[in-house]
Amino acid sequence: MSADLHDAFVALSGLDGADVVRNERMGRRTSYRIGGPAALHVTANTYEALVATIETLHREGVEWALLGKGTNVLVSDAGFSGCVVALGRDFQHTTFGPDGRVTAGAAVILSRLVAQTLKQGLTGLEFCVGIPGTVGGAISMNAGTRREWISRRVVDVVCYHPLEGLRRYARPDVNWQYRSTSLPPSEIVLEATLQLAPGEREAIARDMEERIARRRERQPLGKPSCGSVFRNPPGASVGAMLEACGLKGFSVGGAQVSDIHANFIVNNGTASADDVVAVMRAMHDKVRDTYDVDLQPEVKFLGFAS
Ligand SMILES: Cc1cc2nc3c(=O)[nH]c(=O)nc-3n(C[C@H](O)[C@H](O)[C@H](O)COP(=O)(O)OP(=O)(O)OC[C@H]3O[C@@H](n4cnc5c(N)ncnc54)[C@H](O)[C@@H]3O)c2cc1C
């Protein structure tokens, strides 16, 4: 461990509201179940702990990355030589207003929020059913389906700007795009307020059940993955393109293009990050050679040389 990391570890270890771990295996923290260790891992349970953590990491010159539930991230086999920061206890709140508005902390699990909206008889988040991860991850990725994105429900988002403080963005302040936003990449989403509407509970439940059934039918939910690997090119389905290229079942080591959905790479149990990257490269090159389309990854990378 470098002197900078060691100094950061010592400073962070004494911090109230922060859980600090050295050499945290990221395979435990990602839905792929892949990834070497992060040199440091901090769960910030309070806003004060988060601010102090980020300030310490900046002071010591330690690179850091924010992680939600790690359902859209591939961590390298070598791991991450900096600090992974996660949000804990105080970012797990949910408050329902009288007007169909709900404010959720960034660490709230999206599927729990969806279940709560059903309980409250609120419509608007049915399309999020079955999307794993946190509210913060969903906002950061502008998660959704081909037709519906979470940004459509956003009233505002509160972020922490490192070394400066809180910033609130109303929905029109942000350029929301397909699986990305114009929120500054260094900012940490702390909470989001969403506008939902009163609905009929049975109809909401039926809609959710149908969506879940479709996911079970069309996605390999029994094996570790990160969901869709590549973004859909405008007006096209990358899954259909990859399937037409005959890539279903293609594998390198323990990583395999799913037999069920050609834009999913599953971990058959022994996949390394290098195996996943090799499969991605083969998918990318085959589509480039067949369709002259340069596929862009949807999955985020951590710990790879850029
Ligand atoms: C089986 C499966 C199905 C999926 N289906 C879908 C789907 O239908 N639609 C869809 O959009 N996605 C889907 N995904 C991908 C993934 O679930 C979403 O992108 C999800 O929103 C990521 O949330 P997370 O908390 O896991 O984020 P992570 O994977 O931890 O992080 C993803 C990115 O968001 C950033 N981030 C996370 N939290 C914050 C925060 N608080 N502040 C700032 N940045 C943050 C991270 O730095 C990283 O760049 C699927 C994944 C799986 C495994």
Task: Characterise this structure.
It is globular, with a radius of gyration of 20 Å. Helices cover 28% and strands 26% of the residues. The strands form 6 sheets. A 5-stranded antiparallel beta sheet has the order 6-7-13-9-10, covered by helices on one side. A 4-stranded mixed beta sheet has the order 1-2-5-3, with helices on one face. A 3-stranded antiparallel beta sheet has the order 15-16-17. It contains 7 helices and 18 strands. The chain folds into 3 domains: 88 residues, Uridine Diphospho-n-acetylenolpyruvylglucosamine Reductase, domain 2 (2-Layer Sandwich); 112 residues, Uridine Diphospho-n-acetylenolpyruvylglucosamine Reductase, domain 3, CATH 3.30.465; 83 residues, Uridine Diphospho-n-acetylenolpyruvylglucosamine Reductase, domain 1 (Alpha-Beta Complex), CATH 3.90.78. With 306 residues, it is α+β, with helices and mostly antiparallel strands. The longest helix has 19 residues. The mean pLDDT is 97. The structure holds flavin-adenine dinucleotide. Flavin-adenine dinucleotide (FAD) binds next to strand 3, helix 4 and strand 13. Flavin-adenine dinucleotide binds next to strand 3, helix 4 and strand 13.
